[in-house]
Write a structure and sequence with these properties.
Elements lengths: L3 E4 L5 H14 L10 H9 L3 E8 L2 E11 L8 E9 L8 H15 L4 E4 L6 H9 L20
Parallel strand pairs: 4-5
Antiparallel strand pairs: 1-2, 2-3, 3-4
Length: 152
């Protein structure tokens, strides 16, 4: 199986939508409503938003999305992995590892200080995966402040 890892460009809206559908499937997002294309296109066009996809025979089988955060402790930015998923039938075939490696290489080339990601403590698979890809775990507690009852 040949896997191609590709960083999406602003004109790759349809591929981005394919990735969102992968997230919807893998994360079992019930009653998910895709935002309009204009919103997704604007997001994809932002320099601070990266999307990498894994393609097999031109089909999106996985990918990740990130946000770049500018720091005030350093002139170098950090990158936050927001979502990462691989279709169940393609998992445990090093596709996630390839996505992380490509993201890290790209970020290193553009001068990013570090890449970070959050994982739920109960998600043993995610914890094991991030450790296996060279990630270092930190003990933190994540707090959220829900402001709107449903996504707009």
């Amino acid at each position: 199986m040949e896997v191609e890892i590709k960083k999406l460009k602003s004109q790759d809206l349809n591929t981005f939508i394919e990735l969102i559908r992968v997230f919807e499937d893998v994360f079992e997002m019930k009653n998910f409503i895709l935002p309009d294309s204009k919103h997704l296109q604007q997001l994809l066009a932002q320099d601070s938003f990266f999307v990498f996809v894994a393609l097999v025979n031109d089909k999106v089988v996985g990918g990740l999305t990130t946000y770049t955060l500018q720091q005030y402790y350093s002139t170098l930015p950090v990158v936050y992995i927001y979502d990462l998923a691989v279709l169940t039938s393609y998992q445990r075939q090093d596709i996630g590892r390839m996505l992380i490696a490509n993201l890290n290489q790209y970020c290193k080339e553009i001068g990013v200080q570090e890449v970070f990601v959050q994982a739920d403590e109960i998600d043993d698979y995610a914890l094991e995966f991030y450790r296996a890809t060279g990630g270092t775990a930190e003990k933190v507690v994540h707090f959220t402040y829900p402001l709107i009852s449903s996504a707009s």
